[in-house]
Amino acid sequence: MLPLYKFITNKLKMYYIKYMKKKKILLIILFILININIFIKPIKIVAFWKNNHVNSLIGFQKYIEKLNFNSYFNIDLWFDIILPILSIPILLFISICFFILFVIFNFKK
Question: How far is 100 from 94, CA to CA, in rounded Å?
């Protein structure tokens, strides 16, 4: 039977190896997505959405405009916040999501 300290160190080593594999995979995917985004003509989220199901895009816009987001700063929710997010390329958006996951995995304790 293994002593307790060897058992714990073996478990920690296995956890560390598993954790490092996840980090490496996320970093590789992030690197690939950024390179694809640079070298291939990007498709924007709104163009992809419009080509696949334009009625849901119109319904989403109508819903956001119905919210009538009146604030102290007088922000038009659709044109100032949602539309700039929808106008970024899909792969850039996915790359940003993977970067956020990578940062979360790095600083998670």
Answer: 10
Domain membership flag for residue 6: no
Would you say the pTM of this structure is higher than 0.70? no
Q: How many domains does the chain have?
A: 1
Residue type, 91: L
Report the 10 Å Cβ neighbour count for 10.
Answer: 11
Calculate the average pLDDT of the chain: 79
Instruction: Report the C-alpha gap between 109 and 20 in whole angstroms.
Output: 14
Q: What are the CA-CA distances from residue 100 to residues 12, 14, 26, 63 (Å)?
A: 25, 25, 10, 28
Domain that holds residue 85: 27-107
In a domain, 102, yes or no: yes
Q: What is the spatial distance between Cα 6 and Cα 83, in angstroms, rounded to a whole number?
A: 56
Report how far apart, in Å, the C-alpha atoms of 97 and of each of 54, 100, 102 are: 24, 5, 9
